[in-house]
Write a structure and sequence with these properties.
single chain; 492 residues; mainly alpha; disordered N terminus
Length: 492
């Protein structure tokens, strides 16, 4: 008797998409989906910014304005490290999102696993190089000797933890590429609490710990990053994620209580299954990541030179620059949160052959950010002195930071356009256009600052106007370039 064919129900079928992935590339409304993706990322970015805010407040209130100026200058180098993480994180995120959009989950997990090793190796190279460049970097900024000494102490501890910074950023992007924006949020929340608790303990030497001063703030950040990396790898290795659950009883009878819960993950790491160094994938990752890295690294390098100009007017203006950048994080991290969500949407929809939906998602995210940042601009402008007073009791520093915030407020909407659409280009794997726009305009801030501060006679306000004016130009140009639509045909 001939063997019967297997019934249709026995035919292997692709694993169905997860709920969030079906929303990203499906036919449902875009705005609710973008808000669902972006909400946890924005909160996570605020928690990320809270690292800087907590360090600034503790250092400013406990150690004084020279220490605050020291971590301001060290913060520019830290931004460089964050920018250098894009060597691997941007390419891995774009590729993972594209493979998921193509319904190739196993390929996406292979990319994520190899990306962990790429991040670790690159971090060792970056950390070692910056360690020896610290004296050169401070000479570029022309800071006061005491600021240089304190800032160097702060930086050397951070560079010791460079692999943890790289890995923590990569793990976040892996989750986000798969549409899981909640897990990174909870990881950031837990590590922020750890960082906030360790800051005063390590800076002041409480409970028997050594008194480390500004280096203690850096050590608290490194320890918190270590916790994030260990927990993140454990989750991905076990194909788990952290969801959110609303507790039935609200806090104080009004506010809902949200708690973390473990759930089955959307993506995992193929630990022990993926072996060998894939040079082709590594080259593709760098090809996507290098243009973005150039823009991101050049940005703080330009600010080091801006700091040198500001330093000529006195240490209070360096502290004002730190306060201004810390406060701008409120708007910047909102835009960056939507930027990451946009990258996920664009990457997955291009993989699913839906470029029109990818473009609509990018413009909707941009519109949301523009509306919110307009409100932020009003707050920055009219409450500038009150904001400065939260960071320092020194009247001169408050006045200097207020002037910076008032000028900065004018460009916030355009900064939002710049950041969100840069994320759209990254999600498409087309990172050259943002580099071509941002690099010359960021460099232009140096001569513009000299001309406005000196030749035009605006003094330190001219430096602030150079920053704000070029930000407006970047937002307008990248919007036009994205509208042209050539990113739609980018292959990964």
């Amino acid at each position: 008797m001939p063997r019967l064919a297997s019934p249709p129900n026995d035919i292997p079928r692709p694993k169905p998409r997860s709920d969030i992935q079906a929303r990203v590339v499906g036919d449902g409304p875009l705005m609710p989906m973008i808000l669902r993706l972006a909400g946890p990322v924005v909160l996570m970015m605020y928690l990320q910014g809270a690292y800087n805010i907590i360090d600034s407040i503790w250092v400013g209130q406990l150690l004084g304005k020279m220490a605050l100026a020291a971590i301001a200058t060290g913060g520019f180098v830290l931004w460089s490290i964050f920018g250098l993480t894009n060597l691997v994180t941007v390419g891995v995120m774009a590729t993972v999102a594209r493979r998921i959009g193509e319904d190739k989950l196993q390929a996406a997990e292979q990319v994520a696993t190899k990306g962990v090793w790429y991040a670790f190796v690159l971090s060792l190279i970056v950390g070692a190089a910056l360690w020896f460049l610290i004296p050169v970097l401070y000479e570029m900024m022309g800071t006061d000797p005491q600021v240089t000494q304190l800032g160097s102490q702060y930086l050397r501890v951070l560079l010791f933890g460079c692999p943890l910074i790289f890995l923590s950023f990569l793990l976040q992007r892996i989750f986000q590429a798969a549409g899981d924006t909640v897990t990174p949020m909870w990881l950031m929340f837990v590590t922020l609490i750890l960082n906030a608790g360790l800051d005063p303990v390590l800076m002041l030497g409480l409970f028997g710990f050594p008194k480390m001063g500004v280096a203690g703030a850096a050590m608290a950040t490194v320890i918190a990053r270590l916790a994030m990396v260990i927990f993140g790898i454990w989750l991905l290795a076990g194909r788990k994620r952290i969801g959110s659950k609303r507790v039935r009883e609200p806090v104080l009878g009004y506010f809902p209580l949200i708690i973390p819960v473990f759930r089955t993950g959307y993506i995992g790491l193929q630990m022990g299954k993926t072996t060998g160094w894939d040079w082709r994938l590594f080259a593709s990752t760098l090809r996507i990541g290098i243009p973005n890295t150039v823009s991101q690294v050049l940005f703080p390098l330009v600010y080091m030179l801006i700091t040198r100009i500001a330093a000529a007017y006195g240490p209070i203006y360096i502290a004002a620059l730190r306060i201004g950048h810390t406060v701008e994080g409120v708007s910047f991290f909102l835009a960056l949160g939507f930027s990451i969500a946009t990258a996920t949407c664009v990457g997955q929809n291009l993989g699913a052959q839906r470029p029109d939906r990818a473009e609509r998602a990018a413009w909707i995210a941009t519109g949301i950010v523009v509306a919110i940042l307009f409100v932020y601009s009003v707050v920055f402008y009219f409450l500038s002195r009150q904001i400065g007073a939260a960071f320092t009791p020194d009247p001169e520093t408050i006045g200097a930071s207020a002037t910076y915030l008032e000028i900065l407020a004018i460009s916030q909407v355009f900064m939002g356009i710049e950041v969100v659409l840069a994320g759209a280009f990254s999600g498409a794997g087309d990172t050259v256009p943002p580099m071509a726009i941002f690099t010359p305009l960021n460099i232009a801030r140096i001569p513009a600052a000299y001309l406005l501060a000196g030749t035009a006679g605006l003094g330190i306000s001219g430096v602030w106007w150079a920053i704000s004016g070029t930000s407006i130009m970047k937002g307008l140009i990248i919007a036009f370039w994205f509208y042209r639509g050539r990113w739609r045909t980018r292959k990964i």
